[in-house]
Amino acid sequence: MIVVDDIHKHFGGFHAVDGASLTIEAGSITGLIGPNGAGKTTLFNVIAGVLKPTSGRVHMDGEDITGLPPHTLFHKGLLRTFQIAHEFHSMTCRENLMMVPGGQSGETLWNTWFGTRRIADEERALKAKADEVLEFLTIEHLADQKAGQISGGQKKLLELGRTMMVDAKIVFLDEVGAGVNRTLLNTIGDAILRLNKERNYTFVVIEHDMDFIGRLCDPVICMAEGHVLAQGTLDEIKANEHVIEAYLGTGLKNKDKVGA
Length: 260
Ligand SMILES: Nc1ncnc2c1ncn2[C@@H]1O[C@H](COP(=O)(O)OP(=O)(O)O)[C@@H](O)[C@H]1O
Ligand SMILES: [Mg+2]
Hints:
The protein contains eleven helices and ten strands. The chain is α/β, with parallel strands linked by helices and 260 residues long. Helix 6 packs parallel to helix 7. The protein is globular.
């Protein structure tokens, strides 16, 4: 579904991504791991159009998507989640979901003047969709709460919910579990598994929690120093010499995280 071919991203003289190549299979939940500074987030940002690569190509379903802006990729079903934007904090969770652009006719001036009835119908449909998403994520009780008042983990779920308001095909999640308690992390994991099985979402997940990666991801890709070191099941990755070396090089704390 996604083919990343020899991507380089330099910041000045620094090679954050240094010749990364990988393939994401449609229907997979692919894990992306690696020590801090490996270039994972930078690679995500290049794939999702947030950063232009210094060189290399990205293809989606055979089409060259290198350098396309995020909103164009969004309409192709490629989404990279971000924290809920600051300006949405005073809106309710339901309203935050309803804000996700999906080609509502309320956006055009013509419809603002002449299409009141149609807008009302669409708003009702959007609200129903938002409520369905909240229920799927088991946070329907948060519908009328301000997004600024929910917990960090609940925000992560809401972030995932935003991808469900459009027809996402592939979703990139960067450290969705960071700072999230175990119970909510499991809820997020359940939602990812269900979206994958029931709605055909493909996921690419950057995460440091190896239990989470082990439960969700096959294959797992390990990056270090800007390129891909190894790909395989989590067990294969854990046993890979280059991977162990890369984690050892960054200290024992990280080595323990990969369970090596
Ligand atoms: N905008 C930037 N300018 C300069 N250096 C950057 C920038 N973004 C990331 N880097 C550097 O690139 C390297 C890779 O970062 P990142 O992609 O965030 O790694 P990871 O997500 O694997 O921890 C790091 O050394 C980081 O400091
Ligand atoms: Mg990162």
